[in-house]
Write a structure and sequence with these properties.
Layout (H helix, E strand, L loop, with lengths): L1 E3 L2 H8 L6 E5 L5 H12 L4 E5 L19 H10 L4 E3 L3 H4 L12 H4 L3 H4 L3 H16 L3 E5 L3 H13 L5 E5 L19 H6 L2 H12 L6 H17 L3 E9 L17 E9 L2 E8 L1
Parallel strand pairs: 1-4, 2-3, 2-5, 3-4, 5-6
Antiparallel strand pairs: 7-8, 8-9
Helix pairs in contact: 7-8, 10-11
Bound molecules: pantoate.
């Protein structure tokens, strides 16, 4: 596997990699990322991974500075996973000037849930993903469903800008106790790590309570109860909610759940660490 850092090196390397698939990451790779690479390899096309910790998607008080940078280890893992090319741009390659032109996603999708807790986050994500697509020009790109809202926004961006890239979403990879793999799990203390599967358990509980014909009031009461339970276990929940899968809108009055596929989504802080997870129902 070749590793390139500059746009000139990237463009030269891409000449030999037609119909490529891109796996965009921020590094500090785990089995979830390697599953994305494995999915990309199933397409029988060259696989390019990118590693870039994107300043634009972090608020000033968030963990941009302490986000783990583990490039050498990541490069070894990617090579072993059969990746053909690693693009690991420096900040000056990705943002040679301040990025004043941005992709602004539809607020109806980007200002709710994680976007409400992290204002500007999805603008930063959409902007860097658009830029990575322009730089790498992949025919396919693979993203994890753990970042459910991110995946939806990227799909919409690709549709609305008619980008020639097929987006593939891959199911979340979990640890044996159900915790969704995430680079941020590494911030947890051993005690918090033992507690962390409670988030997934809360999503399962909520999914199990879904009435046959839900009303908005009944769902809000269930969501509030799930948040109270997590809070009593020491979490600070941002949201636990049941939404429509296609646009993350709230379920309408008297809507049978089999009419629109739903997803249960949650985000909560355990100590200083914010975890997210979801469950399609
Ligand atoms: O999901 C991530 O790791 C990041 O949000 C992404 C898509 C690589 C953009 O920085």
């Amino acid at each position: 596997m070749q590793t390139v850092h500059t746009l000139a090196e990237l463009r030269t390397a891409l000449r030999d990699l037609p119909d490529r698939a891109l796996v965009p990451t921020m590094g500090n790779l785990h089995a979830g990322h390697l599953a994305l690479v494995a999915r990309a390899r199933e397409l029988r096309v060259p696989v390019v991974a990118s590693i870039f910790v994107n300043r634009l998607q972090f608020a000033p008080h968030e963990d941009f500075d302490r986000y783990p940078r583990t490039l050498q280890r990541d490069a070894r893992l990617l090579a072993d996973a059969g990746c053909d090319l690693l693009f690991a741009p420096h900040e000056a390659t990705m943002y040679p000037q301040p990025q004043t032109f941005r992709v602004q996603p539809d607020p109806a999708l980007a200002d709710i849930l994680d976007g409400a807790s992290r204002p500007g986050h999805f603008e930063g994500v959409a902007t860097v993903v658009m830029k990575l697509f322009q730089m790498v020009q992949p025919a396919h790109a693979v993203f994890g469903k753990k970042d459910y809202q991110q995946l939806l926004i990227i799909r919409r961006m690709v549709d609305q800008f008619a980008l020639p890239v097929a987006i593939i979403g891959l199911d979340t990879v979990r640890d044996t106790d159900g915790l969704a793999l995430s680079s941020r799990n590494g911030y947890l203390t051993p005690k918090q790590r033992a507690q962390a599967p409670q988030l997934q358990a809360a999503l399962h509980w909520l999914a199990g309570q879904l009435p046959a014909v839900p009303t908005p009031a009944a769902l809000q009461a269930l969501e509030a109860q799930a948040m109270r339970t997590l809070a009593a276990q020491g979490w600070a929940p941002d949201y636990l909610t049941i939404r429509r899968r296609n646009d993350l809108s709230a379920v309408g009055s008297g809507e049978a759940p089999n009419r629109a596929p739903l997803v249960v989504l949650g985000a909560a802080r355990l100590g200083g660490t914010r975890l997210i997870d979801n469950l399609e129902v």
